[in-house]
Amino acid sequence: MEGEHEDGATVERWFLTDGGVTHVVEVTEAGLRKRILWRRGAETLAVALTADDKAQLTAGTFPDDAPEWDAERARLAALSEEERDALGAVALRLAPLVGPTRRVTWHAEPANAALGLGAVDLTPEPGSKAAARQEWIRRHPHLHALRAGLTKGGSMMAALLAVLVLTRWVLPWLSRFVPNWDLPSIPWPDWNLPSIPWPDIDLPSIPWPDWNLPDVSLPGWVEPVVKYGVPVLVAVLLALNEARRHRKQEKVVAPEGPRDKGTATGRASVPEADGPRDTDREGSRAATHDPAPGSTGTD
């Protein structure tokens, strides 16, 4: 289940075990921004505050106005660049406005985090909204793609409607309250700048072929379909690709096993909510838990 921060805010946790060490990423609401904390075992590697829907953390990243992390900042600054790079980096896709975090990935090479290469997914805490969302996408990939396309189309229609209302009614209504000031004209100086004698280069003409293409007249409905339908189609394809990528990651982070069993082969138990706990692993990398199979939420 999702935890609670000391100030009462909900804490969203994601887990990954690599080489016997557990990575924990915590996402907490902090007003209009989100606070992201990345731990490896008992060590805090990075903390960030962001209002964007994408974030990337490397070891040693801390807010400048957070003296409580000075000890961790100094410890990581004492490491060599190679030692810090060996800790990797984490990348997050956050919800644009409200809702759970979309994805958290760990990258062995920090340079690959910005490119999205070499990513291994962290697994959300069982019972959380993020876990319910991932399970729903796994069960209904095509419905998820359709919903993504409709959401994209709806947002575009809402933006067009807002522009129409603003230009047709709101701005004319506000213009009645703007006073008609008779501002004096400013006598700007008349600068007579010299002309630059640019060289006149006589370039040879290239005898391009003269193709006489037929004049194709498309129906009027083609332009709005291409203008508004293509972004919706792209959103659907991206959502389908995300569902396929998630299924591939399930095979990467753990061997095949019965999803309904809490102790599937190669999987470890979930760390306690008050901190990560290292356990032995049969594989070199395994997700710390499996999303709840009975969840069908859409948050």
Detailed description of the structure:
Residues 247-299 are annotated as: Disordered. Residues 250-262, 274-288 have a biased composition (Basic and acidic residues). The protein is α+β, with helices and mostly antiparallel strands. The chain has a domain at 3-125 and 252-286. Helix content is 32%, strand content 20%. The chain is built from 6 helices and 11 strands. Strands 1, 2, 3, 4, 5, 10 and 11 form a 7-stranded antiparallel β-sheet that branches. A 4-stranded antiparallel β-sheet has the order 6-7-8-9. β3 (21-30) and β4 (33-40) form a beta hairpin. The protein is extended. The two termini are 15 Å apart. Residues 255-299 have low confidence and may be disordered.
Shape label:
extended
Strand content: 15-25%
Structural class: alpha+beta
Main β-sheet: number of strands, strand sense, barrel status?
7 strands, antiparallel
- Based on CA atoms alone, the radius of gyration comes out at 27 Å
Order of helices and strands: EEEEEEHHEEHEEHHHE
Mean pLDDT: 76
Question: Helix count, per DSSP?
Answer: 6
Helix content: 25-40%
SS elements, strand count = 11
Rounded to the nearest angstrom, the distance between the terminal CA atoms is 15 Å
Low-confidence stretches: 255-299
